[in-house]
Amino acid sequence: MTITNNGSAPETGDTAVRVPFATDAAICGPEHVEEAVAYDAILLAGFGGPEGQEDVIPFLRNVTRGRGIPDERLEEVAHHYRHFGGVSPINQHNRELKAALEAELAARGIELPVLWGNRNWDPYLRDALREAESRGFTQLIGLATSAYSSFSSCRQYREDFAIALEETGLAGGIRIDKVRQYFDHPGFVAPFTEGVRDGLAAIAAQGVAPEATRVLFATHSIPTADAQRSGPRDRDFGNGGAYAAQHLAVAEVIMRELGSEVGWKLVYQSRSGPPTQPWLEPDINDEIAELEGAGVKGVVIVPLGFVSDHMEVMWDLDTEAIETAEEHGMVAVRTQTPGTHPAYVTGLVDLVMERVQGTPTAERPALTELGPWYDVCRPGCCENVRAGFKPAAAGIAP
Description:
The chain has eleven helices and eight strands. The protein has helices at about 55-65, 70-85, 90-105, 125-135, 150-170, 185-205, 225-230, 240-260, 285-295, 310-325, 340-355; strands spanning about 40-45, 115-120, 140-145, 175-180, 215-220, 265-270, 300, 330-335.
């Protein structure tokens, strides 16, 4: 059974709607939409974060809604935010990114307003959709602040688009597509390449030899079962699914571009959940401890899974990982995230324009063999093991 664009009875035959809430160009579910679409605005979708001590627990309730986690357990995570005054930098980063996108669009003469809505804190996605309605916008192109494929980094954004459309009663009036996952887009990769180059130079300047240096590419750990379900079901990405494969492919591109012989590894951080549940490993702190025995004296920590310096970067890397390195007698530097780097901002606008112009797939830049990624997520992509499939925009159901 297919789902129609506005939730009414399904159609049959070749005209059946396969992608809920999509524009006409995407509604039948092509892997890449090579038809121009006259979007009215860009929907910048963020994770959201607290902006004061009183916001912390309500924010964490939003993040964990439906899981029944008591406040005393949430407080165990809250101390990370409380350490920084209860303020996550992520909202300010999104304000800056929104302004940078608007400046880039204006400089290129592109008349596309940027609306901003978060999944877990004010301004919410539903607020952005109400703004779209008030301004007469009916076709939006979603731009999520997350580059990789997994439930939490892609499908959950798509599900929250669907929830916001239903909550506001706008499911029949506003359509939302989404740009492809951009993990291997040159604009996303360039800031990391620069960062690794600068990080290696900084370590060398402190007298650490290349053979005693390691580059640790860090990303958020996720449950192994979720990782295995990341990406489309008809492609085999190995034990870590598309999520791990994408990170590994980008790391390889960066090290190859630099021509560096320094050893490197993909590591994980920010694990949560019960200890009996397998998550992607190794943890960055465990890896640093192991490196001491291998004679490593310097580490370059690369926040490869993150687009900006939010809490998982500031606490788990800048605080915990750096302290771990120091405890094991190592020099450590943490490299930049894309933030509002000009290449990243330009690349995001380029991704939007791919859909505006219907750019042929062969002309779309991708630095790994995994891309260019899909415009329309494939059936069963990035299933949430705990909750199963829920309605989601920008992908073929389920």
